[in-house]
Structures are given as C-alpha cells and as structure tokens.
C-alpha cells in the first residue's frame, strides 16, 4: 500500500521561501496524481496545487499562481512543492495526497502533514 511522508516544513518569514517534499514508499508514484493540501487552524482543509501523471499542474487556489511550483521526480518517487513569497495567512499543516486525478480531486492516500508557519 502506498505511504506518503511529507518533510521540509518549518518557520519562515513573510515573503520567504520553503520547499516541501513528499516521499512515497510501498508503490510507485508513476501512476498517481499528487496533490498538496493545507489546513489552517480553525479552517477546513483546502486544495493548493496538484500534478498529474503526465506532469501537468493544476492550481486549486488562484493566489498561488506564479508563487508555488509543483514537480515530480518519479525516479526518486518524490514530489516537491516550492513555495515562494509566502504570506502569513498561508500558515497551515500541509499534506500531500495521491490519487487518480487532479480535477476534480480524487485522492486515496494521504500523508500525515508537515507544519508550515509564516511569521516574523
């Protein structure tokens, strides 16, 4: 069964950058769409961005366009999320998930999340 582990979270100042990784084990990521989701305190989980099996990306939130970049390295069985120009309101637990498609999102496997805190 596919297992996902996120890493790379931490504390960053507003306007700063952070790179998250989603490492998979138990199966190959080649046949999955991989999405990044986030949940801020007191809010529902929301989709952020997704990469399909063929490498195409989908932004679930318009505001991340031009700032967040998702990529995949199937040889390393890992998906990356580069986040630039971070805002304080983007403080959240970030989760990666794997599933059949990006749009509409259909995710079957979830990681446990990594905390991202954007604060001065």
Order of helices and strands: EEEEEEEEEEE
Global morphology: globular
Major β-sheet, in short? 7 strands, mixed
Distance between the termini: 40 Å
In percent terms, what proportion of residues is strand? over 45%
Low-confidence stretches: none
- The overall pLDDT average reads 96
Level of helix content?
under 10%
Number of DSSP-assigned strands:
11
Radius of gyration: 13 Å
- DSSP helix count? 0
Structural class: mainly beta
Keywords:
mainly beta, 7-stranded mixed β-sheet, 4-stranded antiparallel β-sheet, 11 strands
Helix and strand arrangement:
Layout: E1 3-7, E2 10-12, E3 18-25, E4 33-39, E5 46-51, E6 57-59, E7 68-73, E8 78-83, E9 92-101, E10 106-110, E11 114-118
Parallel strand pairs: 2-11
Antiparallel strand pairs: 1-3, 3-8, 4-5, 4-9, 5-6, 7-8, 9-10, 9-11
Could you explain how this protein is built, in words?
The chain has strands spanning 3-7, 10-12, 18-25, 33-39, 46-51, 57-59, 68-73, 78-83, 92-101, 106-110, 114-118. With 120 residues, it is mainly β. A hairpin with a 4-residue loop joins strand 7 and strand 8. The protein starts with a strand and ends with a strand.
């Amino acid at each position: 069964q596919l297992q996902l582990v996120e890493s790379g979270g931490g504390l960053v100042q507003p306007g700063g950058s952070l790179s998250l990784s989603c490492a998979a084990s138990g199966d190959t990521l080649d046949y999955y769409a991989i999405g990044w989701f986030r949940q801020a305190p007191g809010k529902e989980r929301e989709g952020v961005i997704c990469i399909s099996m063929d490498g195409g990306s989908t932004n679930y939130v318009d505001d991340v366009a031009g700032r967040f970049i998702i990529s995949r390295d199937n040889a390393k069985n890992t998906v990356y999320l580069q986040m630039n120009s971070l805002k304080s309101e983007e403080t959240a637990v970030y989760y990666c998930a794997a599933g059949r498609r990006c749009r509409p999102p259909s995710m079957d496997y979830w990681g446990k999340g990594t905390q991202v805190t954007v604060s001065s």
